[in-house]
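Translate structure to sequence.
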């Protein structure tokens, strides 16, 4: 039983995720664009040249938190919930 091979798999050993187009790796393993911050090997966010930690995408608005904000939210998962419960 051979599955269709329309998409390439990530070439990282043991990884079964499909690779990004024009890349040999999945997003998790560096497929797609890399963050341009020096020494950073995290893949950049969509429509950004940086990863979340370096300013790509939206970050949690809670002071000191460096996690990425969830879409449609200004906070990460953890702080989003806290803010909601405290915002009375
Ligand atoms: Zn992978
Ligand atoms: Zn980065
Ligand atoms: Zn946060």
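Result:
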């Amino acid at each position: 039983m051979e599955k269709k091979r329309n998409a390439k798999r990530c070439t990282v050993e043991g990884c079964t995720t499909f690779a990004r187009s024009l890349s040999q790796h999945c997003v998790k393993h560096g497929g797609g664009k890399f963050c341009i911050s020096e020494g950073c090997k995290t893949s950049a966010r969509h429509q950004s040249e940086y990863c979340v930690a370096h300013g790509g995408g939206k970050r949690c608005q809670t002071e000191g938190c460096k996690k990425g904000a969830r879409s449609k939210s200004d906070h990460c998962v953890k702080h989003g919930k806290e803010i909601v419960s405290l915002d009375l």
